[in-house]
UniProtKB/TrEMBL annotation:
This is Peptidase M23. GO terms for molecular function: metal ion binding; metalloendopeptidase activity. SUPFAM superfamilies: Duplicated hybrid motif (SSF51261). GO terms for biological process: proteolysis. Residues 335-429 form the M23ase beta-sheet core domain. InterPro entries: Cell_wall_metabolism_enzyme, Csd3_N2, Dup_hybrid_motif, M23ase_b-sheet_dom. It is found in: Cell envelope. Its cofactor is Zn(2+). It comes from Marinomonas hwangdonensis. Residues 205-322 form the Csd3-like second N-terminal domain. The chain crosses the membrane at residues 7-33. One of its GO terms (cellular component) is cell envelope. Keywords: Hydrolase, Membrane, Metal-binding, Metalloprotease, Protease, Transmembrane, Transmembrane helix, Zinc.
Amino acid sequence: MSLIKQLFLWFLSGTRAWILLILSVFLLLAMVYDNLVISSVNPNEHVLPNQTAAVKTMSSNIAEKSDSELEADSELKSDAKKDGFGLDAYFDSIMAFDPLEGMENTTVILPTVEYVIKPGDTLARIFSRLGFTKKSLYEILEADQEYLVLEPLMPEDKFTFQLNESGELLKITRQIDISKNVSYVQHEGGGFFYTEDTKPINYQYEAFHSKVAGNFFNAAKKTGLSDTQIMLVQDVLKGRVDFRKDVRSGDSFNVVLRRGYIEGIPIGNSQLEALEMNIKGQVYRAFLHSDGRFYDQQGNSLTPSLLRWPTRKEYRISSAFNANRLHPITGHRAPHNGVDLVTPIGTEVLAVADGVVTRVATHKYAGKFVVIEYTGPYSSRFLHLDRVLVKKGQQVKRGQVVALSGNTGRSTGAHLHYELHIKGRPVNPMTADIPTTQSISDESRAEYESIVQRWIAMMAKVEEDSHKNMIMLETSAGAKSMEKQTQSFLVIR
C-alpha cells in the first residue's frame, strides 16, 4: 500500500499534476463535443428531395403507443398521401418513375455554324477556315453543277453549316431570298443532294404610271421599276417602238406588275403582266397570257419564237435531259438538267432568243458558263465553254454568238451542256413547249380578252390618279385568275 501511495503522490506532485489535469480536461471536452455532434445530425440529411421525414417508426415504439396516438398517426399518414407528401408518396413516385419516359420526343440539336461572307472569300477559303475537308467541298460542288446556286459569293450573305458530333459537315444552307433557302445535305451513300425550302408567297398586282421627262429609262426608274423590268418592257415592244428614237418628253406609259410578298415584305422578283405606251397619241399595248408569252390587244404574238437548237446545226446528243441520271464519272445518281451536245471545241453557241446576260462565271465542275434571261419566263444556261463572248448585263439578240463551246470543268470530252428554264425550272429543251404560235388560240381567246379588259381598266385608273405614284390591286394569295381579285384599291404615295 505504501508503494501505491508513493506513486499516487508522485503523480500529483510538480508539473506532472498539471499534465494530468490538462489531459483530463481534454478528454472531458472531447466527450462533450462528440455528444453534441451526434445529437445535431439531421435525421433527414440523406433523404431525397421528395422525402419529408426519416424512418422513425420502429415496431417497439408503435407497440407502446396508445390507441388515440395510433389513430392520430393514421390520420397524418392519410393526409400526407392525399397531399402527395410523406414516405409512402415518395416510394410510390419512385416505383412509378420511368427513366425512358419521353425519350421518343427528345430532339438532338446538332451544332451549327453561321458564316458571313467577306470580300474576297471563296468557297475553298471558307471551307479551309472552318476546317472542313476538301472531299466535302468537291462533293458539294459536284452536286451544285446542276443548280449553280452557291456562287457568286456576295459580301454580307450568309452560309449556315450543320455539323455532326465529330465536327463533320452534314448540311450547307444558303438563303437565296426571303422566300427560299437552298441546301446540300450529306447522303447516306456518300456525296450531297440538293434540297430547297420555300415559304408561301402572297401576290399583288401593282400598276405604275409616269410621264417621260428626258428619256424612258430614267422615267421608268423613278416609278420604281428595276433595270431588268425596264429592259423587259423594251424587249416586249421593240418590234413596234424604237425607245431611243420614238419616245420623247411628254409621252406617258403604264405598266402592271405581279409582285410577291412574304409577311408584307417584297421578295424582289416580279412579273410584267401588262404594258401600255402612249407615244404622240399612238397607244401600244402588250399583255402576258397564261402560256408565258406576250400578245397585243388583238391576241397577236409579240414574243419572238425561241431557237430549238443553240447551234447553227444539230449535233448528236450524248446525254439527254434526265431527272435521275447515273453520272458517267462519279457513278452517283443526280438530275441532268440539260442536254449534252457533242460539239468540237470552238463551236459557236447562239442566244436562242432576245435577252439579257445575267451571269458569267467559272465553276470547278461546270467550267466557264453563261446564263441568259429572255423575254417572258425563259432563260438558258451554257456550260463547259471554252470562251465567253458577252458580259453580264449585255443585251443579246436571237441567234447572236455568245460563246464558244469547250471542255472546261469536269468533263468526259468536248461538248456543250445546254439548259432551258421556264419560270426558273429546268425543262427538256428538245421537247419543251416554246413560243411558235403567232396568235391566241380560239379556245383561249375568251379568257384572254377578259383579262385584257381588266388590265386596261386598271391602267386607266392609275392614269386618272396620275398625281399618285402607284395604285395596288390586291389579290388572293397565289391567285392566277383575275376572277379571284378583290376589287379594292390601295394608294401608295
